[in-house]
Each structure stands twice: as C-alpha cells, then as structure tokens.
Amino acid sequence: MIRARLIGLSRKTFWDLTFRELIQEFVVAKRKAWDQHDSDMTNAWTVAALIRQEKLPELERLLTRPMIRKQTRLEQQAAMRQMANLLGKPLKRVRLIRRDIDGQ
User: Fold this and answer.
1) Closest to 50 measured CA to CA, from 62, 37, 65
2) Distance, CA of 24 to CA of 13 (rounded, Å)
3) Cys-Cys with 4: which of 9, 49, 60, 93 at CB 3.0–4.6 Å?
4) pLDDT tens, residue by residue, 35-73
5) Maximum CA pair distance of the chain?
C-alpha cells in the first residue's frame, strides 16, 4: 500500500481498484517517471550545450509554440467592434473613473 500512496493513490482508491487496475496504475506511474527523467536529462543537456555556445539563438526559435504578444489598444478595440457586430449590439463609450485603493 505504501507504493500506491507514493504514486498518489488514496486509501479508498487503492482498496476500490481490482488487481489488474492497480498494476495498470503502477505501470502508468513508472512510465510517467521515465518521461520526467527523460525531460530532465534533455533540459540538462540543452543547458550544457547552450553554455558552450558563443552566441545564443533567439528564444523564440527554441520554443515549440510562438510567444504571445499583448494586444495593442487598437487591436482590442477592433476585437470589441467585431464582437458587438456579431451580437448585433452597439458599443457604448464609457468613461472610467479612477479611484484609489481605498475607494476614494
């Protein structure tokens, strides 16, 4: 039962599982540990390789997904106009009143 708790199974779950399901949980946990180890080793190897480089590549080239930039005010306004048109509701201009943290 200790090994089951180490992989995150509660006492109730442990006792509710069939033997086959319990073995499957152990197999999944083992594979997850291998994946984590491989990921850690890949990260360590990458850091060591980057340390040896004279010039670092651009960060965006190293990422699997492109970095998300923030929308400009004009882009936000254009998106709001599009949503208003889709919903058939006109946009209203609202003047914001800035207040202190105390609400004054």
Assistant:
1) 62
2) 13
3) 9
4) 999 999 999 999 999 999 898 888 778 877 776 788 898
5) 65
Query: What is the per-residue DSSP string for the chain?
Result: -HHHHHTT--HHHHHHS-HHHHHHHHHHHHHHHHHHHHHHHHHHHHHHHHHH-SSPPPHHHH-SSPPPPPPPHHHHHHHHHHHHHHHT------------TT--
What residue spans define the domains of the chain? Answer: 1-55
C-beta separation of 38 from 45 below 8 A: no
CB atoms closer than 10 angstroms to residue 9: 19
Q: 99 falls in which pLDDT band (50, 70, 90)?
A: low
**What is the torsion angle, in degrees rounded to the nearest 10, for the CA atoms of residue 16, residue 21, residue 23 and residue 28?**
-110
Residue type, position 56, single letter: L
